[in-house]
């Protein structure tokens, strides 16, 4: 359950969702033909051991469970594919932005995103990573112990994105008069609708023409009560069966951390505020990367929208 000022360790509540994404990226990285490679994802998982996040790596399931829910392995693989495509989309976004000369990147809700260590940043690039303090501390200390060095000037900015974070970003060295590139990946459902609007207003106040933004926005089906009920019932069945046959395993209740609230369409918001917008629905993104989900489970993959925008002059 959420509250206005809740905070978390990496292994609990919203923090554990960052480990879930790392588990999916680790699974993709060790697959035979990975779309993305994130060698640091497994480093984070090794530091914390098994937990509810391990579910997102699409582990082998007990035969009793597969017999009762034959589409579950396909569904879990489709989610690993979704996370791989999402990672590739944001990787490409930052590669394009720095290729166009932008030297300030801001990763909102950075979680265990290891782009500061993974991507080939041009000299002189600063990457600001925003997230809650204990998430950023876990990430930095785990990678330091591993001996990894970021390939950019990485600046951790410990904030709550529901609060007034622009002052902290400026204090950390961010220059609002120079172009910047911003990402919001895996963040929107964890923010109340009002906090989403405020987030974009703050981005607007910190950007100049030529700046870019990429957002994983919620699709129209996010609020559909029928789809939500179906998903909840399916996962309750899986949870009950697993409790009998493999009680050590946990099934996440991620949707309990989400805010099911009406929101303005993200592409419309940026369009209204003077940005040139392109929107790629998740099914198109996945098809483009050759990772179309199996037909039986295509309605179980998030119908999110991948929004990219560039702020126009004037
Ligand atoms: C699903 S994870 C995604 C992490 C990362 N963007 C990725 O895709 O790997 C969600 C992240 O959002 C962060 N987050 C959610 N709400 C936040 C808030 N109000 N302030 C700061 N961070 C927040 C969590 O701490 C967590 O790291």
TrEMBL record:
Q: Which UniProt keywords apply?
A: Methyltransferase, S-adenosyl-L-methionine, Transferase
Say if the entry is tagged with keyword Methyltransferase. Answer: yes
Q: Name one GO biological process term.
A: methylation
Q: InterPro entries attached here?
A: Ppm1/Ppm2/Tcmp (IPR007213), SAM-dependent_MTases_sf (IPR029063), SAM_mthyl_Trfase_ML2640-like (IPR011610)
> Does this entry carry the keyword Metal-binding?
no
Q: What is its EC number?
A: 2.1.1.-
* One Gene Ontology MF term: methyltransferase activity
In terms of NCBIfam families, this protein maps to: mthyl_TIGR00027
The task this protein performs is described as: Exhibits S-adenosyl-L-methionine-dependent methyltransferase activity.
- Can you tell me which family this protein belongs to? Belongs to the UPF0677 family.
Cite the PANTHER family for this sequence: S-ADENOSYL-L-METHIONINE-DEPENDENT METHYLTRANSFERASE YKTD-RELATED, S-ADENOSYL-L-METHIONINE-DEPENDENT METHYLTRANSFERASES SUPERFAMILY PROTEIN
**Protein name as annotated:** S-adenosyl-L-methionine-dependent methyltransferase
